[in-house]
C-alpha cells in the first residue's frame, strides 16, 4: 500500500509540474512530502507585495525551466515557492526574515547557506547545476588518499559496487547533505578490495599532519546513524568567521564567543578548540564558537579599545553588547572552567547587569563594550564618534578618545543584508 501511495504521489507531483508551472507552489499540505521525496529542493520564499520578489519571480521561473529540462529524472530536483503571507508558519519554521529568500534543501535537510548570488536566470541555473554534481571524488588508486589536503576534513568510503545499498542509498545521500562541510571520496570495486576484508567500510580522516583515521562502527545501511556520525566529524565546534560567511553566521542568531588571533599564532586557536571540545560541547546550541583573523577584522579590535598588537583577544558578542574577556587568552584560555563561567555570566544576565550597574566588587571587572544601534545586524560596533565615553562599563577607567578617522569603517556593516536586494522584515538577530 505504501509503495502504491508513493507512486501516486510521484505521478501527481510530476503532473502538477508539467500541467501548470515549472515552479511548485508549496503549502503546509505538500511541503513535507516533497522535501522527503526529492534529492534537491530549491525554494523561493517571497511576498507578492515585495518589489524584489516581483522582479525575481519571472527570472526564477525561467531558471527552473532550464534546469528541469536538463535534469528530467523524477525526484531529482524541484523548484518551489512559498507565499510567506499565506504560509506564515512555514516562513517562521525556516527563519525567513527578508524577501526574497532562496534556500536549498538536500534530502529534506536545509543547507546552511542561502543562495546569495546574482539574481539572473543563468546565475541561478548554474548554481543549481553545481549542486546537482556529485560531491564524491572517485579514488582510482589508494595511494591518492595519501595526497589529500591535510587542512580539510575527509570521509572515505570503501565499497564493492556503486549499486550497493550502502553506497547508493546511504553514503551518497550523506555526502550530498554534508557536501559543504567535508570532502567525500569513494574507492569502489577491486581498488578497495584490501580495505574490505570485513565488508564495506567508511572512515573519517581529520585535518592535521598525523594520520588518525576513525572508522564508522554503525550499520552502513542506516542513513540516520551515518549522518549523525558524519555531522559530528565534519561540522567543527569551532568555526572560522570570514567576510564570506559572516552574514550566514549572524543569521543563525546565536551569540558569538570569538577569539581574535594573529594568523601566525596557531597555538592559541588550537588551545581554544581543545577546551571547547573538552568542556563546552553542551553549549553548542546556545553559542557559536568562532575564531577570526585579527589582522583582517581590525574594526572590532578598535571598538574594543585594542589593536593588532594586543592579539589574541577573546570576546562575547551578544548582538547588543560586546563583552571583553578580562583574562589573557594566551595563558588562560585553556584553564578549566574559565570559559564556561564567561558563558554562564552572559546567560545569567550578569555581564549585562555589570554593564549597567558596575562589576561585582568581589570579582575582577569585565570590560563591556555596548552597541545600542538598531540596524540590520544588531551587533555591529558603533562608530567612534558615537558617545565613546559611555562605551566602557562602570568600574573601568574611561577609554581614551580615539581619533575618529583612525579606525577603519565597519566591515560587518557591509556584510549585512542589503536593503537594495531585500525587503527586510525585522533585524536578523
Spans of at least 5 consecutive residues with low confidence: 1-19, 372-414
Q: What overall geometry do the principal axes of the alpha carbons give? A: globular
The overall pLDDT average reads 82
Fraction of helical residues: 25-40%
Number of helices: 14
Number of strands: 18
Distance between the termini: 46 Å
| Structural class based on helices, strands and sheet pairing | alpha/beta
Cross-sheet strand order for the largest sheet: 12-14-13-15-16-17
**Main sheet specs:** 6 strands, mixed
Content of β-strand: 15-25%
Radius of gyration: 25 Å
Describe this structure in words.
This protein is α/β, with parallel strands linked by helices. The chain has 14 helices and 18 strands. The strands form four sheets. A six-stranded mixed β-sheet has the order 12-14-13-15-16-17, with helices on one face. It has a five-stranded mixed β-sheet with strand order 1-3-2-5-6. It has a five-stranded mixed β-sheet with strand order 7-9-8-10-11, with helices on one face. The protein is globular and about 70 Å long. The relative contact order is 0.08. Residues 1-19 and 372-414 have low confidence and may be disordered.
Question: Keyphrases for this structure?
Answer:
429 residues, 18 strands, 18% strand, globular, disordered N terminus
List the helices and strands and how they pair.
Elements: H1 2-19, E1 23-25, H2 31-37, E2 40-46, H3 51-70, E3 77-83, H4 88-93, E4 98-99, E5 101-106, E6 109-110, H5 121-132, E7 136-138, E8 154-159, H6 165-177, E9 183-188, E10 201-205, E11 214-215, H7 223-234, E12 238-240, H8 246-251, E13 256-261, H9 267-279, E14 288-293, H10 298-303, E15 313-317, E16 321-324, H11 329-332, H12 338-347, H13 350-357, E17 367-370, H14 411-414, E18 423-424
Parallel strand pairs: 1-3, 2-3, 7-9, 8-9, 12-14, 13-14
Antiparallel strand pairs: 2-5, 4-18, 5-6, 8-10, 10-11, 13-15, 15-16, 16-17
Helix pairs in contact: 3-5, 6-7
Amino acid at each position: 500500500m505504501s509503495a502504491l501511495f508513493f507512486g501516486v504521489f510521484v505521478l501527481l507531483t510530476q503532473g502538477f509540474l508539467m500541467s501548470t508551472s515549472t515552479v511548485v507552489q508549496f503549502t503546509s499540505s505538500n511541503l513535507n512530502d516533497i522535501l522527503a521525496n526529492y534529492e534537491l529542493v530549491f525554494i523561493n520564499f517571497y511576498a507578492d507585495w515585495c518589489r524584489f520578489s516581483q522582479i525575481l519571480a519571472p527570472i526564477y521561473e525561467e531558471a527552473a525551466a532550464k534546469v528541469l529540462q536538463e535534469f528530467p529524472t523524477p525526484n531529482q530536483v524541484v523548484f518551489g515557492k512559498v507565499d510567506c503571507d499565506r504560509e506564515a508558519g512555514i516562513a517562521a519554521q525556516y527563519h525567513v526574515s527578508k524577501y526574497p529568500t532562496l534556500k536549498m534543501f538536500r534530502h529534506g535537510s536545509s543547507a546552511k547557506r542561502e543562495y546569495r548570488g546574482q539574481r539572473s536566470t543563468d546565475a541561478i541555473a548554474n548554481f543549481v547545476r553545481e549542486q546537482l554534481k556529485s560531491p564524491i571524488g572517485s579514488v582510482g588508486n589508494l595511494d591518492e588518499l595519501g595526497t589529500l589536503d591535510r587542512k580539510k576534513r575527509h570521509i572515505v568510503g570503501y565499497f564493492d559496487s556503486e549499486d550497493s545499498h550502502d553506497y547508493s542509498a546511504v553514503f551518497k545521500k550523506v555526502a550530498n547533505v554534508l557536501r559543504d562541510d567535508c570532502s567525500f571520496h569513494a574507492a569502489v570495486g577491486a581498488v578497495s578490495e584490501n580495505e574490505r576484508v570485513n565488508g564495506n567500510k567508511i572512515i573519517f580522516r581529520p585535518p592535521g599532519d598525523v594520520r588518525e583515521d576513525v572508522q564508522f562502527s554503525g550499520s552502513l545501511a542506516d542513513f540516520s546513524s551515518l549522518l549523525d556520525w558524519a555531522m559530528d566529524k565534519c561540522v567543527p565546534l569551532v568555526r572560522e568567521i570570514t567576510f564570506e560567511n559572516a552574514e550566514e553566521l549572524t543569521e543563525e542568531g546565536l551569540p558569538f564567543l570569538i577569539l581574535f588571533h594573529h594568523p601566525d599564532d596557531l597555538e592559541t586557536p588550537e588551545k581554544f578548540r581543545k577546551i571547547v571540545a573538552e568542556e563546552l560541547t553542551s553549549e553548542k546550541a546556545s553559542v557559536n564558537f568562532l575564531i577570526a583573523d585579527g589582522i583582517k577584522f581590525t574594526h572590532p579590535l578598535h571598538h574594543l579599545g585594542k589593536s593588532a598588537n594586543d592579539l589574541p583577544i577573546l570576546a562575547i558578542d551578544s548582538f547588543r553588547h560586546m563583552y571583553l574577556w578580562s583574562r589573557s587568552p594566551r595563558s588562560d584560555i585553556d584553564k578549566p572552567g574559565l570559559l564556561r563561567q564567561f558563558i554562564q555570566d552572559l546567560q545569567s544576565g550578569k555581564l549585562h547587569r555589570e554593564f549597567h550597574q558596575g562589576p561585582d566588587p568581589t570579582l575582577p571587572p569585565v570590560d563591556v563594550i555596548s552597541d545600542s544601534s538598531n540596524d540590520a545586524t544588531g551587533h555591529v560596533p558603533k562608530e567612534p564618534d558615537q558617545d565613546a565615553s559611555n562605551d566602557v562599563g562602570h568600574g573601568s577607567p574611561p577609554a581614551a578618545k580615539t581619533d575618529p578617522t583612525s579606525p577603519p569603517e565597519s566591515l560587518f556593516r557591509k556584510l549585512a543584508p542589503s536593503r537594495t536586494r531585500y525587503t527586510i522584515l525585522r533585524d536578523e538577530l
